[in-house]
Amino acid sequence: MHELSLCQGLITQVQEIAAQHQARAVDCIHLQIGPLSGVVPELLQSAFSVARLHSIAEDASLIIDTCPVRVQCRQCGAQTDTTPNHLVCGSCGDWRTQLLSGDELLLLRVVLNTEQ
Amino acid sequence: MCDTCGCNITPGNRHLLDAPAHGTAIDVLQGLLSANDRAAEHNRTHLNQHRVLAINLMSAPGAGKTSLLEATIDLLQAEFRIGVIEGDLETENDARRIRAKGVPAIQISTGSACHLDAHMVHHALHQLPLAKLDVVFIENVGNLVCPASFDLGHHRNVTLLSVTEGDDKPAKYPVMFRGTDMLLISKIDLLPVFDDFNPQQVQQHMRHLANNAPIMQIAVRHGAQIDPWLHWLREEYRQFQEGLIHGNSPRPRMQNTAATSPAEATPRYRQVSTHTALLPP
């Protein structure tokens, strides 16, 4: 449910960037969402279709990249891909791991139409 | 998350920096919650200035957050000056229950919002007499999903899991339970009835989230069994006050650790400052 409020914040963020660059419109918004971010990409897409209305990003496309859940073992040092609720080392099985990727919630890039 | 030094570039996203783009592409690399995170930092500074420890209480609806607060107030009111912020979609019921104990309580009615955010908490903090308080409990909206994503500017995340919910909740809601600093298994007096609930299993699921947070069993009806929780609170408060002397304050275990923790084996690839890094045409 918080995808809509997240999208409204995103539009505000994008509007500020567009204003700084005197853009006429926003063509594309590129996000990265990890499975452990608590945000569902499909719901974010639906929320975006509502949030973008009557904004400078009204015709923008939203690209969402996901990334693997990857941990590094603090014991044996191995880096392995895993699932969101099983953050144990894929090599030695120890639970003392550090998350390397998988909880990203990032605005990576916007593509602006700056033609005068 | 730091949005300025490029530390949020992880092995999962660095390839995107080299992707070709059309139009005027602006690298941003800013957290989607950066406005909330800024407000949260402001709240934390405000709380630290008043030397007030803030605890974010989260759980599914009905796990016993308000009952725990009532019992805690009864047993700790002589030691600590307590204030409460209550988050619910509707009604002042919970704030009324807390005020009946003689403790200031601010009710945030979120309407349809499923979580508290740092801005809502900011307004509530300004209505509390912080100069006359030691500990503020923020009772989040009953929900195991959305509250986990929002830093409120508090110091610790405490999550309740009642035995009636089942012992596999941490596996079902990894985002919430990965960010837990302290897990309270509540309604433990119902264990004889719900005998398929295995506290050991809860611990196993928590370890699978690489979380070694303490897990305690509590009950608040018919004579509160919450001594370990009170002990933890006293210790947290003591450490909080001690840390302030040295200019430190605790931070809740939060998400986005992949982007913030010092990843020994992950070199930082490129510095990208907010809004300004233009890609070559």
CATH fold-level topology of the domain at 3-67 and 102-113 in chain A: hypothetical protein PF0899 fold
State the share of residues found in helices of chain A, binned by percent: 25-40%
> Largest inter-chain interface?
A-B, 56 and 55 residues
In total, the number of domains of chain B comes to 1
Sheet/helix structural class of chain B: alpha/beta
Overall spatial form of chain B: globular
Number of helices of chain A: 2
Topology:
The complex is a heterodimer of chains A (116) and B (281).
Chain A: H1 3-20, E1 25-33, H2 41-51, E2 61-66, E3 69-73, E4 79-82, E5 97-101, E6 105-113
Helix pairs in contact in A: 1-2
Chain B: E1 24-31, H1 34-49, E2 53-58, H2 65-76, E3 82-88, H3 93-99, E4 105-109, H4 118-127, E5 135-139, E6 156-162, H5 169-172, H6 174-178, E7 182-186, H7 199-208, E8 215-217, H8 227-245, H9 257-260, E9 277-278
Parallel strand pairs in B: 2-5, 2-6, 3-4, 3-5, 6-7, 7-8
Antiparallel strand pairs in B: 1-9
Helix pairs in contact in B: 1-4
Explain how this protein is built.
The complex is a heterodimer of chains A (116) and B (281). Chain A is an alpha+beta fold and 116 residues long. Chain A has helices at 3-20, 41-51, and strands at 25-33, 61-66, 69-73, 79-82, 97-101, 105-113. Helices cover 25% and strands 33% of the residues of chain A. In chain A, β3 (69-73) and β4 form a beta hairpin. Chain B is an alpha/beta fold. Chain B has helices spanning 34-49, 65-76, 93-99, 118-127, 169-172, 174-178, 199-208, 227-245, 257-260; strands spanning 24-31, 53-58, 82-88, 105-109, 135-139, 156-162, 182-186, 215-217, 277-278. In chain B, α7 (199-208) links the parallel β7 (182-186) and β8 (215-217). In chain B, α1 (34-49) packs parallel to α4. Chains A and B meet through α1, β1, β3, β5 and β6 of A and β1, α1, α5, α6 and α7 of B.
